[in-house]
Amino acid sequence: VPLAAGIDVGGTKMLGVVIDTESPGDVLRQHRVATARGTDAVVTGLVEVARALGLDEGTTLGLGIPGLVDDNDVLRMGPNLPDVVDAPIGRLVASALGLGHVPVDNDATCAALAEFRGGAGIGVDDGILVALGTGIGAGIISGGRIMHGVHGFAGEPGHMLVDPNGPMCPCGRRGCWERFASGSGLGRLAREWAEAGRLGAVVAAAGGDPDDVKGEHVTEAARAGDRESGEVLDRFAWWIAVGLANLVNILDPHTIVLGGGVIGAADLIVDRVVAQLDGLVLGSGRRPTVPVVAASMGEHAGAVGAALLGAHLD
Ligand SMILES: [Zn+2]
Questions:
Q1: Tens of pLDDT along 102-130?
Q2: Distance between CA 292 and CA 270 in Å, rounded?
Q3: Distance between Cα 167 and ligand 1 center (Å)
Q4: What's the distance, CA 119 to chain centroid?
């Protein structure tokens, strides 16, 4: 059985998995460690995870990293890995483990590979995965292949500018889509409403101070039937739909898969996005509706996709 290992590097933890490439949805083994700061510490952590997974003879390894990864498996920069710049992570890990080649790609690109090969988008050759977490990650599959762009940097719609006067983004610009449509965007929107004197039930649940309101307070209150929380989620879903409509207009995908921490509340979010997306797309009513579905691999998607990448099944 061809086994493949993959490790997904997050801002706080690294998660490694071993899969059978013929059944990528089934995780056979997994191991996680905290993400340390700096290139050397990240490489040491990756080697530790790989050894704990027990790489047998012939097991391949791939890595998913949050940031801009170029065609030579070099991490140019990652907003959540501030001390790791121009790091040849693939080569460093390969040499520490005595492996020939360890391919590296962006973590959300890996997640897209996993979801479109073995998860919610299985069988789809033209699709987009959008991961709504602290920020927004994405991966684009076109004609059955990852769309990389010339340098490897394609697929960062989180930094589409949607409001030139919007809030500052860690990338240095104002008004990027991820400031509005990520988990942090939901928290910010809820605090705006709370500071304007709305969302009384949510503010109470947060301990009484509008500044302490978080996205989870809104989803919990909405699930308990709070009307104003439902309205915040309608507005939040509109922001998600605005960016997805831009992507549909540019890429004409078959299916969009939504993942990331926000989709832990898929029951509250996905239907609201679907309800608003159609009307925002060019030629609405004269083209097929784009299915929007929740990711199915959860937190394993990035590592499973990294394993497929390592096995050259990208
Ligand atoms: Zn940005």
A1: 999 999 999 999 999 999 999 999 999 99
A2: 7
A3: 10
A4: 14
